Amino acid sequence: MLSFFCPYCWRRVSENDAICPKCSGDIRAADARPFAEKLRAALHHSEPQTRVRAAWILGERKEDSGVPDLMAVVIEADDAFVAEAAVEALGKICAPEAVAVLKQAQEQGTVRVRWAAHKALDQINSSREQGFKAIRRRCS
């Protein structure tokens, strides 16, 4: 059986609900939002696996608009897998504005988060060494 969630407060809702009974959010209007905006919102979902998946997709798409949200996840996540996914996404995006957050994660996170932060910083630094000629789109 499928579970349905309000895209604003992440409470379970009925498949047929047009308005969330908890927060009064217009569930149908949320469908019209751009995909990247939905992914950024999914970083706050109540299910950790959904948050991991959203971070992964943002990274794969090299979605610059997701950088502030991904940085917040790294700082605030209480789940190491979620934090690791956000760190990896920041590395894929090659977000130089995330260096301070990644350095903090490299020093204070769990082993898996520290290792992911190390790799993400390497990705960002190698793109810097290339003079950002390839800009973020070609960061590997």
Index terms:
single chain, 140 residues, mainly alpha, Leucine-rich Repeat Variant, 2 domains, two-stranded antiparallel sheet, 3% strand
Q: What would you say this structure looks like, in words?
A:
This protein is an all-alpha fold and 140 residues long. The chain has 2 domains: 1-32; 35-138, Leucine-rich Repeat Variant, CATH 1.25.10.10. Helices cover 56% and strands 3% of the residues. The protein has helices spanning 27-30, 35-42, 48-60, 67-76, 80-93, 99-108, 111-129; strands spanning 4-5, 12-13. Helix 4 packs antiparallel against helix 5 (80-93) and helix 6 packs antiparallel against helix 7. The radius of gyration is 16 Å and the shape is elongated. The mean pLDDT is 89.
In percent, how much strand structure appears in the residues? under 5%
Strand order of the largest sheet: 1-2
> Would you tell me which CATH topology of the largest domain applies?
Leucine-rich Repeat Variant
User: Strand tally, please?
Assistant: 2
| Structural class assignment | mainly alpha
Task: Write down the Rg.
Answer: 16 Å
- The CATH architecture designation of the largest domain is Alpha Horseshoe
String of helices and strands: EEHHHHHHH
Number of helices: 7
Low-confidence stretches: none
DSSP helix fraction: 55-70%
| Terminus-to-terminus distance | 38 Å
Tally of individual domains: 2
Rounded mean pLDDT score? 89
Envelope shape: elongated
Can you summarize the main beta sheet?
2 strands, antiparallel
Question: In the CATH hierarchy, what is the class of the largest domain?
Answer: Mainly Alpha
For CATH, the homologous superfamily of the largest domain is named as Leucine-rich Repeat Variant
